């Protein structure tokens, strides 16, 4: 068997992990998915179930008390949770996004303190890069950090922060030298309880309604200097390196949502009868299902290849992370839209889960860089 082939298959352990997460997700997360969406409430049941089974942040290395799972295992956890509830899948996904800057660039002390707390379930982690006026052009951020003796003082506003208010820990990118643009940005760990931290009202969103998205305000927030992640001026590079890895997890979320929609539609067409037979017997329906499964499998293979590259930190990860996220999210949008189509009028109602899945899929084309931005990243890093 060639190394290349190995890249695209899962091991027995990965298959066992998938089975375990699928059972847990179906028993403890799926029953609340519609209610969480309808009420726009945080999926606490999912958080409890994931934390109780040590699945909330599987990427944290064993040295810091975590499960020490590889990148593909993290993908499988997120995929299986997203298959039943996209909002809940943002618990493991954003725990990785928020904490990876510490894991990649933090001091040993920062890692021990914050990765340890995350692994023990003492608090979730969020990632604060975007601002009201700095989205795709994230380096145009205005949030400032000014040195004051043994402290840094942060002032500014971050926007669209996933799980803000629920998370205890925040990786915050802030300008420490305004003359140097991206090289004048540094990263810090800020805690929810730090004086001067507050949160805006939850955004009213199209989908992922169970995952709170809020503004985070920093008003004269004084934090010890050792909360800086890595050296001064390296925060933007750390933020971008983080996204190389975590775009793979957004791809995982997309394929999970798409799998949920395909599974539901596959069952429905066998039950629904028109013209005296199950609609699954019409070739027009069979061709739609074949295309959905084909796109999904292509997206999954690209995502798993990207996960292998993330695990090894390969030089071409930047291209693969962007490609997997872009391809899988576009595929998820098409597949979930087709799932609604396969259910006809019923698909358009909240009595069936596919309309929620279609709304949830949309965000995967937008966050961690829009798919236009992914194409810019790919074009700059062509293999
Ligand atoms: C639900 C949700 C959760 C989020 N979670 C987080 C989070 O946890 N942490 C965080 O930091 N951010 C988060 N974000 C922010 C997200 O990453 C940004 O919304 C995204 O990067 C786009 O920025 P923007 O919304 O300002 O859009 P803009 O940058 O204003 O883009 C508007 C449009 O212009 C296009 N565009 C912009 N520049 C170019 C270009 N050069 N070429 C071609 N097209 C271009 C975009 O693709 C888009 O279609 C979240 C967003 C949402 C909606």
From TrEMBL:
Gene3D superfamilies per UniProt: Acyl-CoA dehydrogenase/oxidase, N-terminal domain, Butyryl-CoA Dehydrogenase, subunit A, domain 2, Butyryl-CoA Dehydrogenase, subunit A, domain 3
Catalytic activity annotation: a 2,3-saturated acyl-CoA + A = a 2,3-dehydroacyl-CoA + AH2
Signal peptide: none
SUPFAM superfamilies in UniProt: Acyl-CoA dehydrogenase C-terminal domain-like, Acyl-CoA dehydrogenase NM domain-like
Coiled-coil residue spans: none
Acyl-CoA dehydrogenase/oxidase C-terminal domain residues: 233-382
Acyl-CoA oxidase/dehydrogenase middle domain residues: 127-221
Cofactor: FAD
PANTHER family from the UniProt entry: ACYL-COA DEHYDROGENASE (PTHR43884), ISOVALERYL-COA DEHYDROGENASE, MITOCHONDRIAL-RELATED (PTHR43884:SF12)
Similarity comment text for this entry: Belongs to the acyl-CoA dehydrogenase family.
Protein name: Probable acyl-CoA dehydrogenase fadE25
Protein's organism: Actinacidiphila glaucinigra
Lineage of the species this protein comes from: Bacteria, Bacillati, Actinomycetota, Actinomycetes, Kitasatosporales
């Amino acid at each position: 068997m060639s190394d290349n082939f190995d890249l695209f298959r899962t091991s027995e352990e990965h298959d066992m992990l998938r089975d375990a997460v699928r059972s847990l997700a179906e028993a403890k997360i799926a029953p609340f998915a519609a209610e969480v969406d309808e009420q726009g409430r945080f999926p606490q049941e999912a958080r409890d179930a994931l934390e109780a089974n040590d699945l909330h942040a599987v990427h944290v290395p064993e040295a810091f008390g975590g499960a020490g799972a590889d990148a593909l295992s993290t993908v499988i956890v997120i995929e299986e949770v997203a298959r039943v509830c996209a909002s809940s899948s943002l618990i493991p996904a954003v725990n990785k996004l928020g904490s990876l800057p510490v894991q990649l660039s933090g001091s040993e002390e920062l890692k021990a303190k914050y990765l340890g707390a995350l692994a023990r379930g003492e608090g979730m982690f969020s990632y604060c890069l975007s601002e009201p006026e700095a989205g795709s052009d994230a380096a145009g951020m205005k949030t400032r950090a000014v040195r004051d003796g043994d402290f840094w003082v942060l002032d500014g506003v971050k926007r669209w922060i996933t799980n803000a208010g629920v998370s205890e820990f925040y990786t915050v990118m802030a300008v420490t030298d305004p003359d140097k643009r991206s090289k004048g940005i540094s990263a810090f760990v800020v805690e929810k309880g730090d004086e001067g931290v507050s949160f805006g009202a939850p955004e009213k969103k199209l989908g992922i309604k169970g995952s709170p998205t809020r503004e985070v305000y920093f008003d004269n927030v004084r934090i010890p200097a050792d909360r800086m992640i890595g050296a001064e001026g390296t925060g933007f590079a750390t933020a971008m390196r983080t996204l190389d890895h975590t775009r793979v997890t957004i791809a995982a979320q997309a394929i999970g949502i798409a799998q949920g929609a395909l599974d539901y539609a596959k069952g429905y067409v066998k039950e629904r009868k028109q013209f005296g037979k199950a609609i699954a017997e019409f070739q027009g329906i069979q061709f739609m299902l074949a295309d959905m499964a084909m796109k999904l499998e292509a997206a999954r293979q690209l995502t798993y290849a990207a996960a292998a590259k993330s695990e090894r930190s390969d030089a071409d990860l930047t291209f693969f992370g962007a490609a997997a996220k872009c391809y899988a999210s576009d595929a998820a949008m098409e597949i979930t839209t087709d799932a609604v189509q396969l259910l006809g009028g019923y698909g358009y109602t909240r009595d069936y889960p596919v309309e929620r899945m279609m709304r949830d899929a949309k965000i995967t084309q937008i966050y961690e860089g829009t798919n236009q931005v992914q194409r810019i990243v790919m074009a700059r890093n062509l293999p």
